[in-house]
Amino acid sequence: xxxxxxxxxxxxxxxxxxxxxxxxxxxxxxxxxxxxxxxxxxxxxxxxxxxxxxxxxxxxxxxxxxxxxxxxxxxxxxxxxxxxxxxxxxxxxxxxxxxxxxxxxxxxxxxxxxxxxxxxxxxxxxxxxxxxxxxxxxxxxxxxxxxxxxxxxxxxxxxxxxxxxxxxxxxxxxxxxxxxxxxxxxxxxxxxxxxxxxxxxxxxxxxxxxxxxxxxxxxxxxxxxxxxxxxxxxxxxx
Length: 238
Description:
With 238 residues, this protein is α+β, with helices and mostly antiparallel strands. The protein has helices spanning 22-28, 33-81, and strands spanning 94-95, 101-102, 130-132, 171-180, 188-189, 211-219, 228-237. The strands form 2 sheets. Strands 3, 4, 5, 6 and 7 form a 5-stranded antiparallel sheet that branches. It has a two-stranded antiparallel sheet with strand order 1-2. The longest helix has 49 residues, at 33-81. It is elongated and about 120 Å long.
């Protein structure tokens, strides 16, 4: 029996005919789902790396700016205090008869309400005082005793509803004043400490010792749970 003829032409199979190679057929079939997923993952990793790099750069830049400001605030307070006497000559430091001393700290009538600090005329007046966030006074001060205002990015002073400058936000300057030994400033002494005359050595009175002053600058940003210590400046007032 002879095969039934068909209407489909039969492609010639002679030596001049070439079939598509497997590589050519693969090139025409496009991307598979797995390949698309892998490309998406690679792209996402690259984007995340760029975002992380940008975040790290911004954080580093912010830290640099904050460190510079902290050094500035510590230096300004040192300028404010460095020329002051250790104790008030009008109300000198003296023993109280109960193992303590009188006249350490702000003198009578200076209730530490703004702007009474401008009348602080000796170092012991500033002991345990904090200027700024969470402290005794509204804001950090400069070397002239003026409260440093907050500013915009453009450098304009920020004012409150009454037109008064808003103190620098989030920053504080804390001061600690300690009595130290003459021969070793690292050795802290009690405020009531004094030495009797001995041999050729004269008496060293309760108010004759040098004072060690420590200024600590802290900053609490909008996303910080607690203030961060940004700078510490210490010197001895002989």
